[in-house]
Amino acid sequence: MGKPNVGKSTLLNMITGQKLAIVTSRPQTTRNRIMGVKNVDNGQIVLFDTPGIHAPLHTLGRFILKASLDTVSEVELIYLVVNPTAPDEADISVINMLKDAKKVLFLVINKVDMIKDKPVLLSVIDEYRKFLNFAEIIPISAKNGGGVDDLIKETLHYLPEGPKYYPDEVVTDLFERFMASEIIREKLMDYTHDEIPHSIAVDVVRWQEKKSGLISISADIFVEKPTQKGIIIGKHGRTLKAVGTKARKEIEDVAGARVYLELYVKVKKNWRKDISALNELGFK
Ligand SMILES: Nc1nc2c(ncn2[C@@H]2O[C@H](COP(=O)(O)OP(=O)(O)OP(=O)(O)O)[C@@H](O)[C@H]2O)c(=O)[nH]1
Ligand SMILES: [Mg+2]
Question: DSSP alpha helices (H): ranges in the chain?
């Protein structure tokens, strides 16, 4: 858990060795809880990447916050993922949510590749220690993998003995359709600015596996305003074409098959505030 943009999804992907969660340079990328399984010689860790915690501004924000908070009661151990800087208001509001969690808490200080001197790290640790009692404090770089083996090793120390929940070959419970819609959303977020990245929703409406092995996919891209639609399509359709090409290649990797991808941009006015639109998009 953590505030937006600290690298929670990057960490899930690094630990599992697969791209399960989308990652962008913008806060508030993840909107759902994403599960990933890590198997090691002496155990299995089931991880949940959660959306970054922030004060909800609309109905979508409330669904997103719930996805994070509901996870707290279901787990044995929580990583509080933070930047290598003193806690700000957003970090402190996450800390307040974890205060009564009665779970093993690790402070995971991410992005340490960005700091050069050790004293900075030590002062960050001191600042966080004032707020909570952490079982372990582990500096990592989710991006380059530094410290991640140590994190896994320490995690196994604190997890109870129990049955293996998933067979070795299972890495996630995500459906390919959801992963495809997320990949498309990631590319769209990379190509847009300001409010638009957050106004986008993607719904895969067709997933058809042909006899030839080709997978034919059609996805609707929803935005909130007609002007946003124009921006996503771009001059002569260039933006949408570039998004489609990038997304198709990545979906082909996930699906292990050739993919034909059709994208349609549609306006769904204020969908982030509209319960029935949200339900249709899978936020229930
Ligand atoms: N330098 C550096 N950048 C990182 C590291 N981990 C993540 N990032 C970058 O931080 C940004 C946010 O990463 P995400 O994994 O999407 O962050 P998140 O916490 O899942 O964000 P939300 O889903 O919005 O809550 C991306 O640009 C990542 O490439 C790291 O260890 N070092
Ligand atoms: Mg994320």
Answer: 8-16, 59-72, 89-98, 118-129, 148-158, 176-191, 226-233, 238-255, 275-280
Q: What is the pTM of this model?
A: 0.97
In this predicted structure, what is the pLDDT of residue 284? 83
Q: State the CATH architecture for 8-158.
A: 3-Layer(aba) Sandwich (3.40)
Please write the tens of the pLDDT for every residue from 145-182.
Answer: 999 999 999 999 999 999 999 999 999 999 999 999 99
Taking alpha carbons only, the member of 114, 169, 176, 173 closest to residue 146 is: 114
Q: Tens digit of pLDDT for each residue in 185-226? A: 999 999 999 999 999 999 999 999 999 999 999 999 999 999
Q: Where does residue 235 fall: left (phi above 0), alpha (psi -120 to 50 degrees), or beta otherwise?
A: beta
Mutate to test the pocket of ligand 1, among 10, 14, 108, 183 (most ligand atoms within 8 A of CB): 10
> Ligand 1 in contact with 142 (CB < 6 A)?
yes
Residue 4 Cβ < 6 Å to ligand 1:
yes
In this structure, CATH architecture of domain 176-280: 2-Layer Sandwich (3.30)
For residue 109, give the 3-state DSSP assignment.
strand
